[in-house]
Please model this.
Amino acid sequence: MIGRWLAVCALVVGSVAAGSHAQTLMTKSIAAPPSDVLSGVVRRPVASTTGVSSRCARYPIELERGADGVWRASVGFYVGDPATARLMIVSPEEGAWEARVRFADGDVIVLGDGVELDARVKRHHGQYGIEGVFDPATMYEIEGASREKWTLEVSAARGGAGDIDGYLLVTSDDPVAMYAFAAGGRVGEPIEFYACLYDTTDGVHVPGEAMPVAIEGRLLGEMTRFGTGDAVDVASRFDPAVGERREVSGVLVVDTPGVHRFEARIEAELADGRRVSRSATVLIPVVDARAEIASVTPRVEGDVVEFEFALGGAELPGHFRAGAELWGRGERGDVPIAWIGGMVTPEWDENGDPGAARVSLEMDADWIGLAGAQGPYELRNVRFEDPDFYVVFAERGRMDVAIAPALSAREVGGISTEMLTGRMNAGRAIDVPSVAPASSANGVESAVSAHNIMLIHGYCAGGNPWPTGQFSSPIDIFSDPNQSRSNDAFAQLIGAQSQDSKSFGVIAHSQGGLASLQLYTFYWSGLDWARGPRLIQSVGSPYQGTALAGELAVLGSIFGTGCGENTDLTYAGSAAWLSFVPTWARQQVYYHTTSFLDEPFVYDYCNFLSDFFLTDPDDGVVEMVAGQLPGANNMGHKAGWCHTTGMQDPAQYTDTVRNATMNANAAR
Amino acid sequence: MKTSMMMSVMAALGVASGADAGSAQMCVMDAEQSIAQGADGEVVMSFVLPEGATVTGVVVDIDLDHTWLGDLVIQVEHDGTVVKILDRVNLGFFPYGCGGRDIDASFRDDATVSPVDLCVPSKPDPQPEPMLVGDLIPAQALAGFDGLDAGGQWTITVADLAANDSGTLHTVCLTIEYDAPSPCVGDVNGSGGVDVDDLNALLSAWGTDVGVGSPLDVANDDGVIDVDDLNVVLGAWGTAC
Model:
């Protein structure tokens, strides 16, 4: 590179002694064929198609001290179908509360542990959470009560410990659901949000499908709230428009980067007189990165075409995702040649404009020969995204690029590995955390420089959940307990902890599957050298997100437990993440899904709280539909197994039969 | 384990004064030596070449199986000089180097392909085996032997510097190109000239069977000293070599 451009990260790293702790990962120059472009695999998803569906409503319980010294709260709500109503009170103090439900006709049902329940009420004690972090909760099934407004009345000897003392969750089998979405965005720029009620009789919205049509109804109440993890209210900054249909929409502007929340609740009377309450929580990642893509300069060096982008006014992360489609002219019009992308590192103008930077994408020239496309060539859908939140901070719809026409005459037999991943020795180095290899991190004796199976846990896990005795040595055990990380940060840790492995295959639980795929897609690692039938095997991985990503963090926050929000695990976050993962990478994933055993005429679930938010079948965290990874290998769905221990059915990672199969087929 | 092989190579005789170029090749086939950490494969070859022959080029052909080429250091040693032709390939890009298998290649300085360029993962396609094939650029130039006395012992060692992978060394061929001083025709006693002492030596063995290869049998190497040999000495009479 030209002298005055300063590379933030060294382009070439020195030798790393075997067994030492790597400080860097080498990036791949990834590409996808025209079929991935035309099918939309590598297209940025439309925010309105990746919203969250909710068939429950969550209300805060905020106790206020009365003149008599008693703390009281009152929450009004509608259950939709009163024959199948389910309420849950979530609070660390819930056991000390007196609670009752008052109906519009004056009838009262008393709730609580120390009281004899009305015949219409069934009480379930349990816990909710994920992995090893669970909090207590009590759920009440209430049958045959009024369809009018219900009011939960709570009284307590003490309260006010925080802004919110607890939450009331309300649901029923009524098919009305809320659909809500918000796009991620940049500090100081408008962020669109939207929520509506829709009918799920013909099916719950599936991520990626067009947004559902809002149903008509009379608005009874509406709440729209924004906040950070600390629930800082920025409501004064938005202007929602409430239309005839039951919709809430508007534009939000925030001043600080981070994960913000959009919480919407709608109470409505439908055309047939049913009254429902529904709410949803949408996480909004906001970043302060920015740049203007000023120009692109293509250069051909040997078999590689380098596209160097000049950026102005740039404030950039140390590395980020960049991608673009290259188009040319075919016999019948414009044709895609390839999508190119990868993790890139900016090079700054050390002597000139502090906001001037350059980044490069590289492409194998054989793509042009394979397509046989003539010029003029152009890049389309150029986008630079934050590596953790996938917020687009710079984009260009089209950019002309002057490439020598001779490249189209290259004779190419087919798509080679180098065309898809670039060359191992041509990657750029990305700094990664310096961590101990997996074996030493766990006190497990694994062979250094071995061909391992790496057992990987998921989001917020307290440690390795896999029964190690069911897997053949040598194995490495990944450990990063009680953390919430982006797929990229997670992947970098796997890469750093895999330094005991010459090569390895992965058996992953939950987010570990996503992180492994992230590692394989963007970085060179021992995964690339592994041999054997199945490279990445996963169980219960939310490849298309989970509705719990926002809710669990909210509920856990009142207990001071949990690991916080994770935008990668939302429907929108996972869709954005996947839009940089070509089919060739997905094809290395072999995934399994599970769900609770659904007995006839019994209210079944894996976890009674998460069942409020998830669409059956689910494993208590991941819905079967959202556990699918298009383009990968679906190894089947199995009922009777839940996501983690502490749920209704055994934890899916303890399934001896599946573990034996995965062990036998694992690449190493 | 060590395989040794002696081979005597006679270079073609030059017809003019000055240096003569030649080459000699020696192969150890079916060596079948194990390669593992702590157990190097090693082949020793001894070349008998014309006196004064100096190295002008070296080519090493290797055929081996190994499950992790990044473990390997292959070196050639001769006369105190060591040249590594493969050195933990791709170790700079991956902590354990190249994960490919097997070599069937010729290491030579005039090659244009580096092992570094061949040693890349091929997922999603199967890895090619052998991964290193064809003419390859050695890690260090084999020209490092140039100018050394070509004759004598050459040792090719395949060392495995990491655990958990192993292999077998099948075949090693070493080709040495050299320059040798022209022989002094008629100087049957090696005195550096053709004179009466050469004539006397010839006449003292006249008519006897001296055996093939005798320095006295200068004309046709038929084992018999006769008039043909005498004519060679007389024809070179007075020559100073």
Summary: The CA atoms of residues 44 and 229 of chain B lie 38 Å apart. Confidence is low (pLDDT under 50) at residues 6-18 of chain B. Residues 2-8+20-181 of chain B form a domain with the Jelly Rolls fold (CATH 2.60.120.260).
